[in-house]
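#random but structural
TW: two for the price of one
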Amino acid sequence: MLSNTEICYSFPKLFNFATFGFGAFADVAWVKEPRPSAGGEISVKWKELIVFRIDVGVSAEGTLLYVEGYYLF
């Protein structure tokens, strides 16, 4: 079982083409016992087409960095 909660905020567009945002999240996975984690993200959206984001999550197992970029079509 998995539960995820995330809250995000995006700033107004900069120069009418780039949007910057940040967020925080909390997860709980349940396999044999609950395993919580939490972290944050920074995102950039360019011209409503390309998204680049960096997430950092912290749990009892350690800290992980997740980098993602994708094209919205």
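TW: number two ↓
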Amino acid sequence: MTLLSGAAATALSLHDHSEVSVTPTALDSTLTLSGTEEGGFLARRSRSGKTYDITATGILTPIGSTSASGNLHVVSGISSGPPNGTLNLITGKGTLTLQIPESVDIPSGLPTATSTNEIVDTYVITKGTGAYQGDTGSGVVEFTFKGVNSAGARSQVGRIDITFTTLLASPPTT
């Protein structure tokens, strides 16, 4: 968790990915995503918990228009955890793969969910393609589930907002 709690402080260098004539190692940068995507989900219940298949679109700083797809698995209920999953953010310049790592330790500075229809956790950029090859970063991702309807005894459908923010550093203790 040291990586996650210290990532916000080191994630200050954003890079303009429009340069194509630079060597790949010069393109490596640390990204801090911010913004909201909106879309839908299908949740399937199993013995091990619930898996949400997610699709959404939006505009995220600094990468622009995105289309997200992925999944989120929770042990039970929407706000139970610890969640884990993968999101792929697709843009016209490449793709970023984000992992929502399964962890029982809550990083310092992680906001708490404000309702039972939210999951708040951290993400880590684990892979980039195209203009994002070699990019890294981490932050906070909040999933807000809305309009949940039963699609059957073992599944649900609804709308989702996915909001990306920076992991806030906790205030120094005196």
